[in-house]
Amino acid sequence: MNINVMKFEKYGVHMGIVKSKKALFDNEQDFLDFLMQVRVEADADIVIIEKAVLPEEFFDLKSGFAGMVHQKLVNYRTRMAITGDFTGYDSKALDDYIRECNENNGDIVFLRSVNEAIGYFAG
Fold this sequence. Notes:
This protein has about 120 residues and is of the alpha/beta class. It has helices spanning about 30-40, 65-75, 90-105, 115-120; strands spanning about 5-10, 15-20, 45-50, 80-85, 110. The longest helix has 15 residues, at about 30-40.
């Protein structure tokens, strides 16, 4: 997999940041390859991605793609921030999922920007 991973460190917290204008994976194996590449290249267990890195299928919770991503993050002890504008989706289930993730400070958080994500993890 050929992705551009920006290694970032603030206050001793190491993060891997990936920006893209298109989805970089569309199945479980490709996501796992993506995750491992980011972790290795950034030497970090925190991943920050722009929303566009994810396939649209992620945002349709019925597809199970978000659940698979979430489970892989748990399995590999990785935290991820997804950045962008999520207001364009007309899904109460997705709104509830985003709210629950953000309230629990868990494995996935949804934030507006990469800078906000950096502050969240290193703040």
